[in-house]
């Protein structure tokens, strides 16, 4: 079975090998080899290997590097399992080390490393348990040593490819293998199975008597190798080493140093000498080596082996040096040297305290760290940056920082950020050290730096208040203190008793006595800060300047010069507990004039009384709160201080004993107490929060008094800094907010808000910490929003505070923009905001937006958007305000012009698109809006502007949607008034507008056009109007000519337009009154051709004239002009002409009978007679029957003009005669007999009455006989007798038939013309009669 | 010869995940880790961060925060970030516990502290394989905007590294060029597996 298996396997291996050999492509070759690797690593036996290994090894000279690499990997794996093949394998590995491809060489090195280690372990363990070794193992070992030599030569050969890194690492690993591990077990494992694992191999297992290996020899060799490695670093100077090799070397060496403390002493000097700042070798490698070196130092520092201990201070020093170059630190260093202080500045409070003891201190902290345990320390580091803020304040953390000097962000933050601040701090220290004579310069210094910087200085100082004070110094200092201030002591007591007298009502019992003291102590941090500020505050105060400036000095001392001037320092510390007792810092001040007291008292009283009422809790609680609060604020006042205080308390009074216990209460929370004897009261989170909250509240409260006293300006920054220093969930901002908003004006809310916001902004920006910056940002937003909302709601709309605030804050978050939007566009976002918004609010919002646009260019786009949205608001009132802003103020700003234009255009175009697609929906919506609109119009009538009137004008039809259209368009129209060329777009869009939209446009045009006037741009538009805009054009023209005389340019433009493009005569109508008469007459046919309603306009226009000039035409002239129109010649339908006539007759008040008579008189003289003459006559007689005599006159003149020669007129003549019978008989009888006969034939109805008329005795005689014959009154005996009479008639008679035929055709024309005339405005009945008669003929 | 990359920041939420996201999108073989003790996300206040164990699924955090205060967490970008993250992988992983994840060729860290911790961790492991690993620190502020920038820069850097067959020989050059081009300081170190 086994045989079969192995046979199968063999076949398989052979197959893969053959495949790999014959494979063409790299991939398939690699694949086959991968299979082989699998087989060899899983279950290859010795036989199989011995058979195929040579074949496999051949591949190491394959042409492609991946194959070579893989082969090395395979044989390396084989070698690990089967030591006996090493003599075959190792030569290949050695050869591969020189491979041209670094990756292959590296692989070889890596495999070799493993092989070396495993062989070493195997040989060692075999040697331990038996005195004889396998020959094969020995041989393998020999080969491995050869490989080792090869690697060594590689490692120490100059050059810088990837092989060297592995080689160096190999050397380092060999050193580790060859040297005993002090921490590992020195007993070899008891069973052989350990062979498989070599991780925990320890050279110490060999104790001599090993056939091959010798501990001493190997140690010697390791030592030699280490020397070589160190030489690399020592002498290379960066020439033969590149960065990566350098890093590897340093890392390896530090690893060796840590793991083999015996070698620590050899390695450290070299590494320390490498320290870039301490040595002169400033090669490029130094830069690269900086970080690994730093890490190496840290790693080494952690080494707990006693052998490492002596190196620690040098390491600490070197680490510190690595931060060198920081200007601030240098300056500080110098300054401190001036002050006679040697040592490290600014590292940690305790170091500052006892610089000479620094090495001890380093040890000390190290021990402390050890006590807390390494996991703890790493946890502290791992603790992300939440604690960073506070950790910075606790001594423990600062010690840690010091230890890990260059590691932490915190240190770089501490030093880098506060560079100038630290400088200032030391400057203060230096000044203070000079005593009173420097008061003047101090004052100048303080007043010349910004409030922000000052606040930062104060905050920085707090951090540097010492937490630990050397005991041996203490006594001495106390003595010193007493001597210094002994003289003042009486003064203190005097004042304190005086104060207590005043306070006594509120503090009846000694226990309660602690209350004011505690409260004052609570005030203490604040007071200290105040004092730094006092000089400026006093600048206001006048005569007090010098005294209070003196006040500043001592309180300043502890803060700024804790390390520099130890004696003064202690003084101030001693003062601190006394302050509560006395109530005002000035009391503790040396050289203070007594006059100051009177000044100081009132304020103190106020403060302490406030405090007293605030704190009605148990005094114990207060004591805790005191301890906690001052710890928060002045974290470094801690342990030893209380010890220092207790003796002091003895010499003061009971209250200060109380306060000293209070201070001791704060000890536990500090957690770094060297003495655990102090009572420990641990506060839980909630208590701490409460205490912090209370203390901050006090400070804020105190600001109210400061505000009253003036000079709060300088202090605002401090409040902001304090707030930032507090943990966020104490929510100091809420309190500041309340303070600000409780009385925005008198608390100088604007300034304070700004300071707070800038500080928050700075925090958010500067802080790399995700959690912190996110929180600061959100606090910022909430704070600003809250203030802004309150400003909006609490102040009248005319107040400019909001706008000012928003203009000056660091940046505007979205929430604020939203607020503005709500203000400017009420109802757009939240329906429930109602009563707040009135027109004034909108104005306020808009003016804010405007000022933001002007003041904050980055917010322009957003603010502009708000303004624009407001400009299309559905409320008329809002819209008009916004439009005024946009058009008058914003539009002229060149950077905004395009945006505004685009937006307005978009809105304009939206009208055309929306009302087509969803007109219904819009209607519904806008109806609702209209309801709103009408309401608002009702409520605020004064704001309803001219637009509202337009609204009324077009309310006849779907008013709501018109207003909706106007909503969208008014902005654009407003812009048109600013930039006339925009107007063209309206014309372009007009064509695609719905009727509703057009209506809206028409509503706005008059105002717009009147505003624009006849500008050149408008003329340009007029001269070339886009298609489909004639109606609009007409309105524009009408508006332009309405009530004014149009400019000649306008008239000529219109004429040109008419002549060139637009043959539509209606555009001429508006200017008709201003055209010369002859032109009008010339144009008349075209005017007549217009639709009737337009023509009526023409009539009105021409007749009314303009205000300045008389009418162009008289009514008569108009009528005559109409008659002069020749349908055929002018190509105008006859009907148009008759309609025109009818139109004239329709206006009886203009076309009076006099006018008509006049016209007829003139017309009858014309040759030829106008075609419509008889029609007009008929209409005249129809309209004015009283004119019948005049008409008869006309008729008789027609007879004399041989009217019958005009067949059409003849018909009309006869009809007229019929109508006017019997008056017309006279005229008829004037006709020559043939015509009379014709007439009677044509209108038989005439015959009988006419005959009757003629037969009258008084008439008959006057008639010629021929007439009588025609009439049939007389028979025609002598028909031919009066030849002279018939003769002239004969041609007529002959012409008659032809006339009749000629008449037949035009009668068709009249027929055509007549029926429509029925709907003319004239006397219908008659006309229809005429029609019927004409058509009957 | 693709390399394996690891992105490491402190909580495996923002910076490392942004880079992970970007590199994954570009087809890199990439993983991401945090070195902190816990995963911390901003909470309603600085003292109340949301603390999770490594291994807590992003989905879980997402659901929980959305339940707690959707408005707040949307506003400060946490929810969008978690949403992005849960599309990249299941849960945040801790660097110090990643021994089972195999060997990386390049580790990119985004904060010096993290860099130090990675180095320390790598150095404390036994160097068995002798396989060099490049650790680069690219300092990136821990906020959303910077993380996005950092992600882009990381991509550029990794593309550069990917293009060189053997970074060991070229690393100084690559770092130098990158620093000059992007005006960012890089710190790198080499350790071994």
UniProtKB/TrEMBL annotation, chain A:
Superkingdom in the source lineage: Eukaryota
- InterPro entries of this UniProt entry? ARM-like, ARM-type_fold, Symplekin/Pta1_N, Symplekin_C
What segment(s) does the record annotate as region Disordered? 343-418, 1279-1337
Q: What is this protein called in UniProt?
A: Symplekin C-terminal domain-containing protein
Q: Can you give the residue ranges of the Symplekin C-terminal domain?
A: 1064-1242
Ranges annotated as biased composition (Polar residues): 401-413, 1279-1299
* Residue span(s) of domain Symplekin/Pta1 N-terminal: 102-321
Tell me the classification of the organism that encodes this protein: Eukaryota, Viridiplantae, Streptophyta, Embryophyta, Tracheophyta
Which species expresses this protein natively?
Daucus carota subsp. sativus
Automatic annotation (TrEMBL), chain B:
The answer on whether this UniProt entry bears the keyword Hydrolase reads yes
The reactions it catalyses are: O-phospho-L-threonyl-[protein] + H2O = L-threonyl-[protein] + phosphate; O-phospho-L-seryl-[protein] + H2O = L-seryl-[protein] + phosphate
What are the EC numbers?
A: 3.1.3.16
GO terms in the biological process aspect are: mRNA 3'-end processing
The domain of life for this entry's organism is: Eukaryota
Name where it's found.
Answer: Nucleus
Return the Pfam families for the record.
Answer: Ssu72
Q: Which UniProt keywords apply?
A: Hydrolase, mRNA processing, Nucleus, Protein phosphatase
Return one GO MF term. RNA polymerase II CTD heptapeptide repeat phosphatase activity
InterPro entries reported in the protein's UniProt record: RNA_pol_II_suA
* A single Gene Ontology CC term: nucleus
* Function in brief: Protein phosphatase that catalyzes the dephosphorylation of the C-terminal domain of RNA polymerase II. Plays a role in RNA processing and termination.
Instruction: Please report which protein family the annotation says this sequence is part of.
Output: Belongs to the SSU72 phosphatase family.
Write the protein's name: RNA polymerase II subunit A C-terminal domain phosphatase SSU72
